[in-house]
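Q: Could you fold this chain for me?
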Amino acid sequence: MPFASFFRFIRPRYLFAACALILAFGLWAELSPSRITLAQEEMQAKLIKEFSPDPRYPQEARDKNIQGIVKLSVLVAKDGSVKKLSVISGDPLLAKSSEDTVRHWKYAPTLSKGKPVEVESIVEISFKLYP
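A: Sure. Below is the predicted structure, expressed as C-alpha cells.
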C-alpha cells in the first residue's frame, strides 16, 4: 500500500489536526467579509468634504441647457479612496464631469468587525440650471 509508508511518518491525528485548522481558517475568511454594500445616504455621511470637491457643470451642457441626475456605481477601497467607478445612467456630458470629480473623492474607511473593508455603493449627482 502506498499510503502505509506515508502514515508511518505522519500520524493520522496530526493530519486530522492540520485539516481541521485549514478548514477553520477557510470558514473564518468566509465569515469576515472583504466587501460590503452601503446605502447612498450612509456613503454620503462617510464622504470627507475637504478632499471631495463638487463636480463642475460642463460649459457645453450649460450652453445646451442639459440638466439631470447622473448615477454612478462606486467601489471604495479599504483606505477610503475610489477604486472603481462606472456610470449607470445620465447624460454623457454630465457623466464625464461626474466621473472626473468622484474619482478624486475620499471617504472615511469602513470597518466590519474591526477590519477595513471595500464598500460598494451608488452615488447620484444632480445637475440643475437656475435662471
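A (continued): The chain has a mean pLDDT of 83.
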